[in-house]
Each structure stands twice: as C-alpha cells, then as structure tokens.
Specification:
The protein has 529 residues and is α+β, with helices and mostly antiparallel strands. Strands 1, 2, 5, 6, 7, 8, 9, 15, 16, 17, 18 and 19 form a twelve-stranded mixed sheet that branches. A hairpin with a 2-residue loop joins strand 7 and strand 8. Helix 5 crosses helix 12. The protein is globular, with a radius of gyration of 23 Å. The relative contact order is 0.16.
C-alpha cells in the first residue's frame, strides 16, 4: 500500500533521514560565511524588542509585519481585509519590507496567520527570520548558520518549556519563487509525525471506555479485526490476524506479509481502480496474513495505525479526519490541521517542498502526487498543520484525557522494550534521570519534521521544507553536551560555525527560562492559554 512517504525506517529521528549532498550546493564559501558571521555578530546578537501591549489579538486588531532592518514598521492592514491575505498565499505578499524582503503574517488554509498576530522580521547571518515574540540568540544562530551554509530554502522552530510557549520563528522562505517567508504559521506536511497525533486520538476511545458490539469496553488488548469484521475476498481470515491487539497495531508489532497495491485491490475486488478506497487495500492484503506473529517483534510501518483509524470510524461512525478535528484539534485550539488525502484543493493550498537538483545546481519543487486512495494515510502520513499547531499538540496532548497521569503511564508502560522503543504511536527514549521523553520524526516529499515532548520540561518542533544532510546537526547543539565528530563529518559543517557556546543549548536555557516565568506566547500566538 504505497503512500507519499519515503522509507519508513528512516523517519524516526534526524539521524535516520536519508543522506543528501548538501556540501556540493552551498553558494557561499565556508571562509566567506565565517567572515559574514564575524562582521554581522553585533547585529546577530541584538535581542528583538518585545511586542507592544496594544498589539494583542481582538476583533479590532490589525495585522502587520515589523521590520528591524531599518527600524520602521510597515503600514497596518485591517483584520477584515481578508482578500489581501488570501491572495498572499498564492502569490507575492501585499507587504513589502525594507531591503526588498517580502512577507505576510497570515496562514491558515488560504492565508498567512491569524488576525491580530504581529510578526517581526530581521536578517541574521543573511537569512530572513520571521518570528513571534522575542528571539533567543543561541537558537537564532544555530538555524541561520546552518541555513546560510547550505542555502536550504526554509525552516521553522517552536519551543515550549513547562507548558509555556517561549520561542517561535520561521527561517528563509516557504515559497522560493514568490519569496513568501516561512513563518511559525506556515502550513507543513508533517509526514509520519501524523502517527503519534492519530494514535493519541485513538486512545481517546480507551479513555472514554467506548462500548464494543459485545458490550465490553475497548481496551489495549482488544482485537481490532474482530471489531471491524473484515474478511479476505474469499471469506477467510488468517488466525494470526485474529490475535492482533490495539497495542500491537499502535506499536508496529504487526505487518502484512504482502500489502496490496491499488491495482491489486481493484482486481481482487472487481472494482474500477478509481473506486478503490482505504478499506479495499486492507481487504486485498488479508489473505496472505502477517509477516510475523503479532507481538513477536516490532517493524516500523503504517499498517497498524491505519487499521485503528478504520476501527475508530466503525466505533464512532465518523470519518477519521473529522474525528481528529473534533476530539483532538478543537479542544487544543488547533484550527489549521487537516489530512491532504481528503481534499482535492490541497495541492493548490500547501506551500511546496523542495529537492536539490544537482544538474541545475538549485532547489526545485517536489511534485505533489495523488494519494493511493482517498483518505489513505490519514493516520499514517498525510496530516498538515503549522509548526505552532504541532507544538501545541505536543505540549498539551495529555490534557485531552480525563486522567492525564494514567494515560501517560499507559503510553510508557506499553512501550515495546524496557529501555524505550515504540510506545503507542510515539518513540520512547530513556533520559539520564530515568524518565522517558516521547518523539517522532517525519519525511514526506522534501519535508522533514520532528516533534519531541517531555525532554526535561521541553517540547519542541522543527520543520524543514528540504532535506540536505545539514539539518541532521540541529538536534545536537540543541540537546547534547557536545556535537559529535561523526555529525561534523557526515554533515560537512565546519566546527567553527558551532563553538561551545552554541552547544547544549536547551539545558543552558533552563535557568534563564525558570527566571522568566512571565514569558508565555500562547495567547499572543492565538491559542487559549
């Protein structure tokens, strides 16, 4: 059952993404970049001013960009001028800043940010930075230095600490051709990060104690194939499929021996290929059974999440993307998320991703192919949302449950191995203090995404719209005591760009953020606090 994602086994985290050739495509020499960093250090280290008190969201609020290149704000645009915002996402922005920088502050399905949100822009190390609220110098430097070296088109980083939004910025452009800035509100394809999002929605059914047809309640050891009542085209169901549980499905502990293609499903079921739906792909895959006994090992795929999405639809009588919207996104204040496989308009709404074209010596747009079947990958890899919305989910998803502590323990207690591994849609990682954090990575087209939560009080999201090797370095200066020799070697990034003061950044930030408890940008970002 193919989808748009590349090799699943490479999506778990930054170190597992496929290699690129970033060191051949830099338009700026290393020596030149180091000179730029030295010459521009005074500007780069200058803190951004805080947002004025009278610029908060509201029915009469305005939307504007503030340029710090020349210190002069652009004219405000009334919040009701919706056509201008809608036009901006499909072409050049109606805003123009000094230095020829074009920008737009709104983004939803059609625009570049919610009414009333004020974004600030500046150039750091030659890279456009579009941020919400104040900057954090070390984070600004890490992202802009890496992007300046590689000429990567665009990226975003959002950081939360102890439930507070403390940093949100976009870097470069979401649309190279029209020079539309990448912002914290830019819609992004999150790839396999869809899996933990979907899995946490599925666990709402366990939390609510939903009744099964036999009057029992759904549990972690319930059998989805019994609930679905699926049978192969010849009416059979291999016995090992009857033994699959909810836990097996969400932990990648089951896998079809052969996943039927759209063409094979159409032939097996006597359907026109254009009429094949998600259920048909599964039905056509059942006859050959599983590749291994469920629960005997864990092998990454999207089959289990997809089975549980169909189970959710059966139990709730609601299409899965609508169920996600009602039970997960709406309670957290997330309004821009959707599954692109249900909407023909997606290819005209989403910003492009990019791949490096060695022959042309430039980044080129990644094509947007059609889905394998309408709705396919809705729980696997087709979710779209802004970096801010994804960070909101990672920061607050436990609030979805009646007993957050119990649900957190359920996730950790059902991981596949004592030290960590897959954990009901996440990957669990044991920390130095014995606790666990949860994370997941995603690759789809040129998009690269990571969501991590529970790491010493931090949750974060990073997104890139292209995938050269250099982005692999981002987790190391943020979360490790020192960047490894292996990382410098694989990425081709010179050590001079990341001195000791730009390593172990998040742990160094903790005392500062503990003192700055008043810093919380969630309300400013347009989310309920």
């Amino acid at each position: 059952m193919p989808d748009r994602e590349t090799e699943h086994k490479n999506e778990h985290g930054p170190a597992h993404h496929q290699a690129g050739h970033h060191h051949h495509r830099s338009t700026r020499s290393i020596a030149g970049l180091l000179g730029l960093l030295a010459a521009g250090s005074a500007m780069a280290l200058t803190a951004l001013p805080s947002r004025a008190r009278d610029e908060g969201p509201g029915s009469g609020a305005t939307v504007r960009l503030v340029s710090h290149q020349g210190g002069r704000a652009e004219p405000a645009m009334a919040a009701g001028e919706e056509p201008a915002a809608r036009v901006a996402s499909r072409g050049k922005s109606p805003f123009r800043l000094e230095g020829g920088v074009e920008g737009d502050t709104r983004l939803g399905v059609h625009g570049q940010g919610p009414d009333g949100v004020v974004l600030q822009q500046e150039q750091i190390n030659g890279i456009l930075v579009t941020r919400l609220g104040p900057g954090i110098r070390e984070i600004d430097e890490v992202f802009t230095r890496m992007m300046a070296l590689t000429t990567m088109p665009g990226a975003a980083y959002v950081l939360c600490y102890q439930g507070r939004l403390v940093y949100a910025a976009g870097f470069g452009y979401s649309n190279l051709e029209d020079k539309i800035p990448f912002t914290p509100y830019t819609l992004c394809e999150i790839g396999s990060v869809s899996k933990p999002v979907a899995s946490m929605a599925i666990l709402r059914l366990l939390d609510e104690g939903v009744r099964l047809p036999d009057s029992s309640r759904l549990a972690i050891d319930s059998h989805p194939y019994d609930i679905l009542g699926w049978r192969a085209p010849d009416g059979s169901l291999p016995e090992e499929l009857r033994r699959v549980t909810v836990k097996h499905a969400l932990n990648h502990e089951m896998l079809y021996k052969h996943a039927a293609t759209r063409e094979e499903a159409a032939q097996a079921l006597g359907k026109n290929i254009n009429d094949v739906v998600v259920k048909d792909l599964h039905i056509a895959s059942l006859k050959e059974g599983l590749a291994f006994e469920p629960g005997s090992k864990s092998q990454y795929s999207g089959v289990g999440q997809c089975v549980m999405a169909r189970t959710t639809e059966k139990l709730t009588n609601t299409r899965f993307d609508m169920y996600l919207r009602e039970t997960t996104f709406a309670p957290l204040g997330i309004q821009d998320a959707f599954s692109f496989n249900y909407y023909d308009i997606a290819s005209g709404v989403l910003p492009p991703s990019y791949q490096w074209n060695a022959q042309r010596g430039e980044f080129v747009r990644e094509e947007f192919p059609p889905p394998a079947a309408i709705g396919y990958a809705d729980a696997v890899g087709s979710l779209v949302m802004s970096p801010l919305s994804l960070a909101r989910f990672g920061d607050r998803f436990l609030d979805l449950y009646r007993d957050p502590v119990r649900m957190e323990r359920m996730i950790i207690d059902n991981k596949v191995a004592p030290h960590g591994g897959y954990a009901l849609g996440w990957i669990a990682e044991r920390l130095e203090d014995g606790s666990f954090d949860l994370y997941h990575g995603g690759m789809i087209g040129g998009w690269r995404t990571e969501l991590k939560t529970g790491w010493y009080g931090f949750s974060h999201v990073w997104v890139f719209n292209a995938g050269p090797d250099a982005f692999n370095i981002i987790p190391e200066p943020l979360g490790r005591p020192a960047i490894s020799d292996d990382t410098f070697g694989k990425t081709g990034i010179p050590r001079e760009l990341f001195p000791p003061e730009l390593q172990n950044i998040l742990k160094r930030l903790r005392p500062r953020l503990d003192r700055q408890r008043q810093v919380n940008l969630w309300r400013q970002a347009g989310f309920p606090d």
